[in-house]
TrEMBL record:
It comes from Nocardiopsis eucommiae. Gene3D superfamilies: Acyl-CoA dehydrogenase/oxidase, N-terminal domain, Butyryl-CoA Dehydrogenase, subunit A, domain 2, Butyryl-CoA Dehydrogenase, subunit A, domain 3. Residues 24-137 form the Acyl-CoA dehydrogenase/oxidase N-terminal domain. Keywords: FAD, Flavoprotein, Oxidoreductase, Transit peptide. This is glutaryl-CoA dehydrogenase (ETF). The lineage of its organism: Bacteria, Bacillati, Actinomycetota, Actinomycetes, Streptosporangiales. InterPro entries: Acyl-CoA_DH_CS, Acyl-CoA_Oxase/DH_mid-dom, Acyl-CoA_Oxase/DH_mid-dom_sf, AcylCo_DH-like_C, AcylCo_DH/oxidase_C, AcylCoA_DH/ox_N, AcylCoA_DH/ox_N_sf, AcylCoA_DH/oxidase_NM_dom_sf. One of its GO terms (molecular function) is fatty-acyl-CoA binding.
């Protein structure tokens, strides 16, 4: 058959550029396992969890995630899975296709709390916590952000001072996912020798966590304020390899990488819901998907969804090759969050009045993305990171 006689297959509406065709068999297996689990165990309940503004059984959820193998799945040893960066990204994508709060649960556990201990902790700290956290038998949180210290974490007020052989910590951390249900908190504090990280069991006297209520976004998630009042820790509570602000920022980069993939899942979910709705909702005697304005909206959504998927996969491949710079991750978060927000807003419009209800996922995703847009680096911060990368000039100070 000549080239002129060949006919390419029509694009798959749900994977227009066949991005997933680039995955290995192992990556597809992981994608399918997490998607099947999410569809069976999470999707039927997430609207109720969102409406209630909490996760009713976080320990059961942690154990289920541990059994699935997604907690710290990209870390090596200590009971962790040692998977590729792309495989971890695919897990994040499938979880956030259900809800950003669920991906955040896994991301905070694996890419923040566990990754910090894995990178900077002592062997004793790693052996004590990582196997239990990977199994979902212990929950961790990551205390960096403060009430007055968000985009500028170097201005933190939490301090750790030496008192004999001990450390004594005082301060407050804000917007901490899993804080009130955590067994261990990785807390960053200023010391006389710079910023250091501490492994803090949450039953230590002086440590308390207050749940933050009345959230309008990321409601299927537990968010807390951490309060440290003369929290006394032994000398070996400090993570020995944690030195300076670069340590917590490197952990944030791991979590941001998960966001690059996760928001691609949120965008995909909104697009798929809109495509189905446009094909079944009738007005003026035909499905609304038959009107030009709706088709233009769907076309814009397809482009954003596929661009986000390609960006995530490319950055994942760079990461697995050892060639992923933190500015690549800034590029991904900057581009993909904006794309997902556009898709979610458009999806809410296509659904009309139905779009504001929890019967459909679109407004839940839309408001969740408002949080994702500002945590772990706002749009402005990532824009400046990219700008510094291309110009060689820092605009931060």
């Amino acid at each position: 058959m000549s080239d002129s006689q060949r006919r390419a297959a029509a694009p798959d509406p749900l994977d227009f550029l066949a991005v997933d065709a680039e995955l290995s068999d192992t990556e597809r297996d992981i994608r399918d396992a997490v998607r099947e689990f999410s569809t069976r165990e999470l999707l039927p309940h997430v609207a109720d969890w969102f409406e209630a503004g909490t996760l009713p059984d976080p320990r059961g959820l942690a154990k289920a995630f541990g059994d699935l193998g997604v907690l710290g799945m990209h870390l090596e040893g200590y009971g962790c899975g040692g998977s590729s960066a792309v495989a971890y990204g695919l897990a994040c994508r499938e979880l956030e296709a259900v809800d950003s709060g669920l991906r955040s649960f896994v991301s905070v556990q694996g890419s923040l709390a566990m990754a910090a201990i894995h990178k900077f902790g002592s062997e004793e700290q790693k052996n004590e916590w990582l196997p239990r956290m990977a199994a979902g038998d212990a929950i961790g949180c990551f205390g960096l952000t403060e009430p007055d210290s968000g985009s500028d974490p170097g201005s933190m007020r939490t301090r750790a001072r030496r008192d004999g052989a001990d450390w004594v910590l005082n301060g407050t951390k804000m917007w901490i996912t899993n804080g009130s249900v955590a067994d261990v908190a990785v807390v960053w504090a200023a010391t006389d020798d710079g910023i250091r990280g501490f492994v803090v069991p949450t039953d230590t006297p002086g440590f308390s966590a207050n749940v933050i209520h009345k959230k309008l976004s990321l409601r299927a998630s537990i968010t807390s304020e951490l309060v440290l009042e003369d929290v006394r820790l032994p000398a070996d509570a400090v993570m020995p390899a944690s030195k300076g602000l670069g340590s917590p920022l490197s952990c944030l980069n791991e979590a941001r990488y998960g966001i690059v993939w996760g928001v691609a899942g949120a965008a995909r979910a909104c697009y798929e819901a809109s495509l189905d709705y446009a094909k079944t909702r009738e007005q003026f005697g035909k499905p609304i998907g038959g009107f030009q304005l709706t088709q233009r909206k769907l076309a814009d959504m397809v482009v954003d969804v596929n661009h986000a998927s390609m960006t995530a996969l490319r950055i994942g491949r760079l990461k697995d090759e050892g060639n992923c710079h933190h500015n690549h991750v800034s590029f991904g978060k900057f581009a993909n969050v904006a794309a997902a927000q556009r898709v979610a807003r458009t999806a809410r419009g296509i659904h009309g009045a139905n779009g504001i209800t929890l019967e459909y996922p679109v407004m839940r995703h839309m408001v969740n993305l408002e949080t994702v847009a500002t945590y772990e680096g706002t749009e402005e911060i990532h824009a400046l990171s990219i700008g510094q990368s291309v110009t060689g000039v820092s605009a931060f100070r």
